[in-house]
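Course assignment 3, question 2. Fill in each field.
Student: A.L.
Task: Predict the tertiary structure for the chain below.
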Amino acid sequence: GLGTCRYMTLDDAGARGAFRRLADCKLSPTRERRVARVLSSLLMPEKEKGWVALDSQNFEFRLDKRLPDLDRARFVQSNEAIYRAVARFCGGEPPRRIRYIVGNSMFKSKICCAEVTDEGLLALVTTQLDCPPGHQMTHAVSLPVLQPRRYVPLFVEGLAVYLDQLEKDHLRAAFAVVQEMELEVSIDDLWQDWHCLPPEVALPVAGAFTDCLVREGGHEKYLELFRDPGRDNAERLYGAERLAGWIREFEGVFPKQ
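Answer field:
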């Protein structure tokens, strides 16, 4: 918690110290990997050569010098526009600029992720140039702004797919991958267990379901559900029968195996 607080209050040195101390503690393998990624993101631009620093109104970009030719001004302008769209949907902005580390897509060791701690999300994004432009940014904006009571991937990942700025038909994309992999879709199962479907199926399905909820139930109620993503809250917001009907209709679009 201390490292996250120090980072969000612009105390980078304090954040690095807190995460270093945490890394020396006995941690679960999952948390150990998470802390290592956060430390890498915090330390990389300061300790390694080969990175270009490029700051803008809402970002601290760190760009791998091995990236292919990149129009930096256009890159910044495009990401600022995406940021404004995501922040407008979420109804707010993170308390500090997003540190956005972009690696060369040739180097597969670069992990595409927004850095999440057990206490919340640091405004850190590590990505590749060819990843969907809005996905990780949505994580970096939505989680600190909306502060969900529980981390439920159906909504956290669903919103990131919905706002990934690829301008695609989410339901059509989900249908295509479900049909190709010959799997059945159950929103109730996915709500409880994100791993009941492989990620290449779960992600487009979650994006399409988010699209359905925003379209049918409205933007504001969806944000309320994102903050408290329990089934009981969903039924309170939408009505149990209406929600069940939307889910049946949504699942009915996909082929039965």
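Instructor remarks: The chain has a mean pLDDT of 78. The two ends are 45 Å apart (CA to CA).
Grade: pending
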